[in-house]
Amino acid sequence: MMQTTTIEQDTEQDTTDLVRAAAAGVPGAWDELVRRYTPLLRSRTRGFRLQEADALDVAQATWLRLAENLHRIHTPEHLAGWLATVVSRECIRLLRHGSRTIPADEPLATAADPRPGPEDVVVDADTCAALRTALDALPARRRALVAALFLDDRRPYVEIARDLGMAVGSLGPTRARTLTELRRLLDGAGVVA
Fold it and tell me: Is 104 exposed, middle or buried (0-12, 13-18, 19+ CB in 10 A)?
């Protein structure tokens, strides 16, 4: 029994000396702390079932907290408990706030550019030209109907019928025939609608 107490006291003294040496910037002291306590951090993060990248982030945050507070550790023999508490809190913080976030000032690499690409611009221009050609092929009264229904501000059918000299009841059937004719002309021009 006496032997165990002596070994524990030696380990506590060793940890105290190691923490003081790391705080003083002694070469190798920090590396020894990391070597000695990394298995503890891994064990704790495994308990939270984090993804590997998240577990590494949590461990790094824990080591950062230790580096920031190393000079404040009053009882270095309790370092293992301190690290276990900090790593657990970091795991909880990560799980509470979502695993991985991308800073808002960095553009998303996977976000699509909302502007049309050069191919889209060319296709749209060709489609508009084919539509203008098809509209020009329609009789004047039907062109006026298309303009009144689709290009002008939304007006009541009664107004459109009056302006075109048509019966209100004939606007719908005339519109249907006109759209069918436009589709036929666009198909003939090779425009896929």
Answer: exposed
Radius of gyration over every alpha carbon of the chain, rounded to an integer in angstroms = 38
Amino acid letter, residue 128: C
The tokens of 182 are what? Answer: 């436009």
Answer for the pair 45, 58: CB distance below 8 angstroms, yes or no: yes
CA distances from 23 to 31, 59, 85 (A): 12, 19, 20
C-beta of residue 21 within 8 angstroms of C-beta of residue 29: yes
Q: Model confidence over 73-105: pLDDT tens digits? A: 888 889 999 999 999 999 999 988 874 555 555
Q: Helical H runs in 52-110?
A: 52-69, 79-96
